[in-house]
Design brief:
nine-stranded mixed β-sheet; alpha/beta; Alkaline Phosphatase, subunit A
Length: 300
């Protein structure tokens, strides 16, 4: 067989390769406009970006920047918060349970002496709270809301919270250094989390969504440009603590290893997001996360 025939035969053997494998083999570096490119491998770190009080249909279609990222990456179309109001959902994400809490009381009102994903991860977690004045701040000081800071509630990690639960301004240095831990929690303040507020535009639901979208547009490019995102080790999960008209929420995944333009229709809950982090970290599941539907897919 001559050289030309060998080459033709080799190329022909490559053609039947599955589309997903081809996409991952041909992947290029992620960019701000194309943040999901199917890079080989799976994430080793997760960043949760938590927004407030919009159901799926109240957010999807009302946030041009996030919608563009969702269309370019991965959307979970059937992901649900656990209950109302805000705090029990943050606790469910953190510990697989609402711990019987049914209000938005402060950490001092609801100290929780129980396990959380933060305790499981030891030093490999961090929380970045916008407008928080001191580490692990236990009292609200508008626009910072203590009820949106779940590590502050778990008493077994009081010392860790004082060191690892920090103002949002600390995030950029960690991004630049490529030193984000296994789990990072990012919580915007009241003017940027889509909650009703007194900041300009905060008196209507669409205005609140636009506030959150504008903040994402200013901040998410920095995350996408970071070394950990570019290498494929960082998965970004943007979700809402709870819905408003119903509790189905708009959840978007971004990561270099994810295949672009993907929809995951599986029924999932906030416990599923917790269970994903626990599997990724190799730690035991907590409470309701043990039976939650699994978040899975190519590149996850």
């Amino acid at each position: 067989m001559n050289a030309k025939r060998v080459i033709v035969a080799f190329v022909a053997c490559l053609l039947p390769v599955a589309g997903s494998v081809q996409a991952r083999a041909l992947a290029v570096a992620p960019t701000e406009s194309k943040p999901c490119v199917g890079t080989a491998g799976k994430p080793t770190r997760v960043l949760w970006w938590i927004l407030e009080n919009h159901s799926y249909d109240q957010a999807r279609g009302h946030m041009p920047y996030l919608d563009a990222k969702a269309d370019a990456c991965v959307i979970l179309t059937d992901e649900w918060a656990i209950t109302h109001p805000s705090l029990p959902n943050y606790l469910a994400l953190s510990g697989g349970s609402t711990f019987g809490i049914t209000d938005d009381g402060s950490p001092k009102k609801h100290p929780i002496n129980d396990a959380s994903v933060y305790q499981q991860l030891g030093t490999s977690w961090a929380a970045f709270l916008q407008s928080m004045q001191t580490n692990c701040q236990l009292r609200s000081e508008t626009p910072y809301m203590a009820r949106h800071n779940p590590p502050a509630y778990f008493t077994p990690i009081t010392s860790a919270c004082a060191a690892q639960d920090v103002p949002y301004t600390a995030l950029q240095a960690r991004l630049n250094a490529g030193s984000l831990p296994t789990l990072s929690l990012v919580v915007p303040d009241r003017c940027h989390d889509a909650h009703k507020n007194t900041c300009p535009g905060g008196d209507t639901r669409n205005g609140q969504a636009r506030q959150a979208d504008d903040f994402l547009a200013s901040e998410l490019p920095k995350i996408i440009a970071s070394p950990q995102y570019q290498s494929g080790s960082l998965l970004v999960v943007i979700t809402w603590d709870e819905g408003h008209s119903d509790n189905r929420v708009y959840t978007v995944l971004l990561g270099a290893t994810l295949l672009p333009k993907t929809t995951i229709p599986t029924h999932l809950t906030h416990h599923s997001l917790l269970a994903y982090v626990e599997r990724l970290a190799g730690v035991p599941c907590l409470k309701e996360a043990c039976t939650a539907p699994a978040l899975s897919g190519v590149g996850l």
